[in-house]
Amino acid sequence: MGRLIIESKTVCKGKEAMIGRDEIFQYVKKKYDVVEDYPLPTAPTFPVMRHPDTRKWFAIIMDVPKDKLGLTGQQRVDVINVKLSDPLLVDVLTQQDGYFRGYHFNRGNWISILLDGTVPFEDICRWIDESFLVTASKQRKQEYRPPKEWIIPANPKYYDTEHAFDEKSEIDWKQGTGIKTGDIVFMYVTAPVSAILYKCRVTRTNIPYDYTDDHLTIRSIMKIELLERFKPDRFTFHVLKNEYGIYAVRGPRGVPYSLSEALKRGGDQR
Question: pLDDT per residue over 83-100, tens digit each?
Answer without folding.
Answer: 998 898 999 999 999 999
